[in-house]
């Protein structure tokens, strides 16, 4: 660990954290008697806390963000150089890195044409929702305004994003919600709603979306918002046949397809974007997290030219343009970091590494499944994998969230940080989640799954 900060200084930091910080996603009562954990430094795939304890990070910064790993001097230099030259201008005018990164990004996204910058995944999704609503008013008298979302998917923390989120425990106590958001069924074959398998199940899960559209009225539905792989809802891969049928349904009813790549984008699944694994052409793609690997804040709402053209008019109606602003979408640090982040992925062939190491992780997890009856299902794409824990394989009864927490704590004690679904899905917060930086090596993967092996043996016997 870097010795520039002395232990006394860190004691002061711990005290300041306990006294003044409001952390994300946690109950603070235990911090009245226990020290908060402070992550002090990161290098490559490893981080160190205030006590000098070293951890392998298998969650890319806790929330699936640090795709190229820690300590990237070239990204820091790119940000420094850019903000010294021109750090910010509001988005009504352009900047050099904004134009350059938009061009570089769209080169990876055939069929997409325009980039709208903001600074978080929630905000990127809000922009898309607003575009859908404005198109409804411009073209459909306001009627075609409903936005469909999928059970178990998650799209952000704002009230509108929670309104379109399929995780009830994330939503609890924050209503009332924005009207016009309608849920469609999940597509997790392991928790099948229909007595079908494989492609037949995938097509049936997609047909369930059409049933909702017909129930609501196709003339009222403007968009369908889906994650390419459901992330926090349990790392759910769409079954074969699902995505082609979804695309067909959207085109049949003139419904805009919005794919939320906040987690899966920029290499996580082994492709530049998760949807590119499934041969579909979206109308909106939203992204954040791995776009700049957490070195600076940036998110993007990317659209087709056809969507963009609907906001171009003469002056006969002064309200016809997209009347939206994201103040810090004008910060050039995010775009400079994003360009270098993407360059690193290209230079170091990290998409290839993601596919290879993702395959190794799935193989390792399946070997653990053979060894530990508590693992009911293993699934994943690239370096984004999950293992669902069950008390009984026959009934698929989930283990308790407390037992999952015990596994995480045991693994943490071994010097490995993993993730899990937590307080999101009533009764189904039972999946372990793995999303290490795309630089992971075979030794890293083996260390992560080895720690899980030991934890499962101790927690479940």
UniProtKB/TrEMBL annotation:
Lineage top rank: taxon: Bacteria
Family of this protein: Belongs to the class-III pyridoxal-phosphate-dependent aminotransferase family.
Protein name: Aminotransferase class III-fold pyridoxal phosphate-dependent enzyme
SUPFAM superfamilies in UniProt: PLP-dependent transferases
MF (Gene Ontology): transaminase activity
Matching Pfam families: Aminotran_3
Cofactor: pyridoxal 5'-phosphate
Entry keyword set: Aminotransferase, Pyridoxal phosphate, Transferase
PANTHER family per record: AMINOTRANSFERASE, AMINOTRANSFERASE CLASS-III
Record keyword Transferase present: yes
């Amino acid at each position: 660990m870097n010795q520039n900060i002395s232990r006394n200084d860190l004691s002061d930091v711990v005290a300041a954290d306990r006294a003044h910080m409001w952390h994300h996603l946690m109950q603070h009562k235990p911090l009245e008697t226990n020290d908060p954990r402070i992550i002090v430094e990161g290098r490559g795939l490893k981080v160190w806390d205030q006590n000098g304890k070293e951890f392998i990070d298998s969650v890319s910064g806790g929330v699936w963000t640090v795709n190229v790993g820690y300590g990237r001097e070239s990204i820091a230099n790119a940000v420094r150089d850019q903000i010294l030259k021109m750090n910010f201008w509001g988005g009504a005018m352009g900047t050099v890195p904004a134009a350059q990164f938009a061009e570089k990004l769209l080169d990876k996204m055939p069929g997409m044409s325009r980039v709208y910058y903001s600074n978080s995944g929630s905000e990127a999704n809000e922009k898309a929702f607003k575009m859908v609503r404005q198109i409804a008013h411009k073209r459909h008298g306001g009627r075609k305004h409903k936005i469909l979302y999928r059970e178990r998917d998650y799209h952000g923390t704002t009230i509108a994003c929670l309104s379109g989120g399929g995780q009830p425990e994330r939503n609890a106590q924050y209503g009332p919600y924005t009207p016009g958001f309608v849920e469609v069924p999940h597509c997790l074959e392991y928790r099948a709603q229909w007595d079908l398998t494989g492609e037949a199940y995938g097509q049936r899960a997609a047909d369930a979306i059409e049933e909702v559209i017909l129930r609501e009225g196709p003339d009222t539905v403007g968009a369908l918002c889906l994650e390419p792989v459901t992330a926090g809802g349990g790392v759910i891969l769409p079954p074969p046949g699902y995505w082609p049928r979804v695309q067909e349904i959207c085109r049949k009813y003139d419904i805009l397809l919005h794919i939320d790549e906040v987690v899966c984008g920029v290499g996580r699944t082994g492709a530049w974007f998760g949807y590119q694994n499934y041969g579909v052409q979206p109308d909106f793609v939203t992204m954040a997290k791995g776009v700049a690997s957490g070195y600076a804040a940036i998110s993007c709402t990317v659209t087709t030219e056809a969507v963009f053209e609907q906001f171009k008019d003469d002056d006969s109606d002064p309200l016809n343009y997209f009347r939206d602003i994201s103040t810090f979408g004008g910060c050039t640090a995010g775009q400079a970091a994003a360009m270098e982040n993407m360059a690193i992925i290209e230079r170091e062939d990290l998409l290839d590494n993601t596919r290879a190491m993702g395959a190794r992780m799935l193989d390792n997890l399946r070997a653990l499944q053979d060894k530990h009856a508590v693992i009911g299902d293993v699934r994943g794409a690239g370096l984004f994998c999950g293992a669902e824990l069950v008390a009984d394989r026959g009934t698929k009864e989930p283990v308790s969230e407390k037992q999952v927490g015990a596994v995480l704590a045991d693994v943490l004690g071994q010097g490995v940080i993993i993730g899990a679904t937590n307080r999101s899905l009533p009764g189904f917060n039972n999946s372990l989640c793995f999303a290490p930086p795309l630089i992971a090596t075979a030794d890293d993967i083996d260390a992560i799954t080895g720690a899980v092996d030991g934890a499962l043996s101790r927690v479940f016997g």
